[in-house]
Amino acid sequence: MPNRPSPGERAAAVRNQAKRARRLADGLPEGNDRVRMLEHAEELEREAEALEAEASGNAPTRRHGQREQQQTQEQQQQGEEPTESKPKS
Cβ neighbours of residue 52 under 8 Å, at least 6 residues apart? Predict the structure, then answer.
């Protein structure tokens, strides 16, 4: 059974994915696809920051991160622009 990567190693891998997403976005024409790719890169950066905080012992609660991820997924399914915090009606 292989060893699970440390939070620091996972953070580095996720940052690499964010970097790749930005490079891909640079190759896309202006428009929704490019915006979505850049938003994805930002989500990956936030994930890497959370992993780095976990590695340093300053981890935010997983529940909070999961709630943000679920809200983002719901917004994407509804075709809305993801926002940092959206008031509920």
Answer: 7, 8, 11
DSSP for 54-87 reads: HHHT-PPPHHHHHHHHHHHHHHHHHTPPP-S---
Place of tokens 């809305």: 80
pLDDT in tens, 57-77: 876 555 455 556 666 666 666
Confirm if 5 and 42 have CB atoms less than 8 A apart: no
Domain map (residue ranges) of the chain: 7-78
Q: Out of 5-14, 25-34, 80-89, pick the least confident.
A: 80-89
Residue 24 token pair: 């891909």
* Residues 3/19, Cβ–Cβ less than 8 Å: no
